[in-house]
Design brief:
heterodimer, A: 308 residues, alpha+beta, four-stranded parallel sheet, 30% helix, 29% strand, globular, B: 295 residues, five-stranded mixed sheet, 8 helices
């Protein structure tokens, strides 16, 4: 039995539930839009043993029957907060609810995609980069600084081929940066910027599920293909195969970050070298599966069904 | 040169710096990355480096630090409904700070894994697997939004229970009818976490391979010291506080504090702990910053 935890407003969660249904898989959906209303949770940790059940109006689930869990927490703003007063109070209650669920996931022996301990590595991109270093994956020259002079010097060293991206997990996209922008970005000196040399080449998204990988080559002239459509730039995707060493290091990096499932952003340079940018712990895999027909959801379903 | 990062861990903000200075070591105290603290982290395939430039003209490369203590770093708030400019700046700064900590080449107490970055407290259930590896028992707990279930648990453990929110360091005794009314209301919003708490509560502070207690403890607890040191190693925290109680003659962990406040310790023991921290940094004998996440 698979437990899916999230919200159907989220396209990725909806896509996965649809695929599970299409495959006739055994699963239960915990709807975070309304949870814990209409659910009854009963868990015990007694004499160091964990046991518990979760009941909805239509079903009852013993946690010992789970073979896997897929989690994609719904943002607080998309949950029912009718009885929760202000937004801050709602956030506090939602956080307590999420920690309760994550406490259960931490106690389970079955695979969880993903537990919170791995997911939070995403809140610092340079931390992730440091974890990737030392593998066959290359790291683009990167600077994180709140000092304009250093940033400008880096810009010159890269001959002006520089992109800017957030340091934290708050996505602001990847944008080409001009020299004129740098002093403005750092005018207050309060928050650092992350600048990276622009590596010319082709984007590759790698989805890692346990030991299995799916690589998707993205053909687009956009700096950040995720925003290509908005910019009126064409995007094409196709399945591709990675050199075995690169594939192996994608699996290793995923495990090192404490993840069972990841979406790794690579770029293959014109010289055939593979650069790693970041590891997404909650990947929007439906976007790639729809475009290429790759069986990512099927592999995820099988991964979450195989235990014990 | 030793680096002390973050806000002081105790009411005595001079505890750690004074300990370093008394032994002739220079200390640089950086409570937060402010506009006055210029920061540069460079990462590439072949090398990483970091520099700090202070507004008094001093500059430091990461190689100049002999050791670092992380006290209470500012938190990353990822749970806010709308991220404003201020919170965005905070998140960006903290993300840089934590990467910097992981890049420091010197011994760092503690080189916190990401799970410790965003919440004020990592709930005890997140430590259960490592506690189990170290053969440490945990106080009995129930998590439920069903009032009948919470009552049954209280009855099973003899009524000595506290409401222990997972997102907070505080806990509340559940003793009176009014307490139960409040608890039932809370359970309508979220499952509540109840724990069997049998006083007295003993606090252990682990510094490397040494355990300090906040009071005289029974032999059943001193016998556990090896397991507590092992816990620090497995959790990759060279400096941590653990609260324990004894129920049914068995010692049980009821709380873990990865950012020790030392609030339960007298001033003499605090100084011993500060000295032990310094010794650990000087000798470099600490739990290495392992790369595998805790949970």
């Amino acid at each position: 039995m698979i437990l899916v935890c999230g919200g159907l407003q989220d396209q990725v969660t909806r896509f996965f539930c649809d695929r599970l249904e299409a495959h006739g898989a055994s699963f239960r959906f915990l709807d975070q839009e309304i949870y814990p209303t209409t659910y009854q949770l009963r868990c015990h940790w007694q004499s160091n043993c964990f046991s518990g059940t979760l009941e909805s109006k239509d079903w009852r689930l013993g946690f010992e029957t789970l073979s896997g869990v897929y989690v994609r927490h719904l943002p607080s703003s998309q949950r029912n907060s009718e009885r929760l007063g202000g937004a801050e109070e709602a956030c506090g209650v939602h956080a307590e609810n999420d920690l309760g669920l994550e406490s259960i996931f931490a106690a389970l022996s079955c695979p969880v995609a993903n537990r919170i301990g791995g997911v939070v590595s995403n809140v610092s991109k340079p931390y992730q980069t440091l974890q990737i270093r030392g593998s066959s994956l290359r790291i683009p020259s990167t600077i994180v600084t709140n000092e304009a002079l250093e940033a400008e010097e880096f810009y010159e060293l890269c001959a002006g081929r520089v992109v800017r991206k957030s340091v934290s997990g708050i996505s602001t996209g990847t944008r080409l940066t001009s020299r004129q922008e740098i002093p403005q970005l750092l005018a207050e000196g309060e928050s650092p910027v992350q600048l990276q040399e622009l590596v010319a080449g082709t984007d590759i998204r790698v989805h890692v599920i346990g030991e299995e990988i799916f690589a998707t080559r993205i053909l687009s002239k956009a700096v950040d293909y995720r925003f290509a459509e908005q910019e009126g730039v064409e995007v094409r995707m196709e399945a591709t195969i990675l050199p075995s060493e690169v594939a192996r290091d994608c699996v290793r990096t995923t495990k090192r970050l404490g993840l069972a499932f990841s979406g790794i952003d690579l770029r293959e340079s014109r010289e055939g070298q593979f650069y790693a940018f970041e590891v997404n712990p909650s990947p929007g895999f439906s976007f790639y599966e729809r475009a290429t027909g790759q069986g990512i959801s099927t592999a995820l379903m099988e991964f979450l069904s195989a235990f014990p | 040169m030793f680096l002390v990062l973050g806000e002081p861990i105790t009411g005595d903000s001079e505890l750690l710096p004074a300990s370093f200075r008394n032994r002739g070591h220079e200390v640089l105290i950086i409570p937060d990355l402010t506009p006055k603290t210029k920061f540069v982290l460079r990462i590439s395939t072949s090398a990483t480096s970091c520099e700090l430039h202070l507004d008094d003209g001093r500059s430091f490369s990461d190689k100049q630090f002999d050791g670092a203590v992380v006290q209470k770093p500012p938190r990353i708030r990822s749970d806010l409904p709308n991220i404003g400019q201020e919170e965005y700046a905070r998140s960006e700064k903290n993300a840089a700070l934590f990467a910097w900590l992981w890049n420091l080449k010197c011994p760092v107490v503690n080189r916190y894994p990401p799970i410790f970055w965003s919440s004020t407290r990592v709930p005890l259930p997140f430590f259960r697997q490592v506690l189990s590896q170290c053969k440490l028992d945990v106080a009995d707990t129930a998590l439920s939004n069903a009032s009948s279930e919470l009552r049954r648990f209280a009855s099973n453990v003899g009524g000595q229970i506290r409401y222990t929110p997972l997102s907070s360091a505080k806990s509340y005794p559940i003793e009176t009818a009014n307490d139960w009314v409040g608890l039932s209301k809370m359970a309508e919003l979220c499952p509540v976490n109840l724990m069997q708490v049998v006083p007295p509560i003993y606090t252990a502070c682990v510094v490397g391979d040494t355990v300090y207690w906040n009071q005289a403890v029974p032999p059943v607890l001193t016998d556990l010291e090896g397991s507590l040191v092992r816990l620090a190693i497995v959790a990759r925290l060279s400096f941590m506080e653990i609260q324990l109680l004894v129920a049914k003659d068995t010692p049980r962990v009821c709380s873990i504090e990865a950012f020790p406040s030392l609030a339960k310790f007298d001033s003499g023991t605090r100084e011993l702990i500060a000295d032990a921290l310094l010794r650990m940094l000087v000798t470099g004998k600490l739990t290495s910053g392992a790369r595998k996440p805790l949970v």
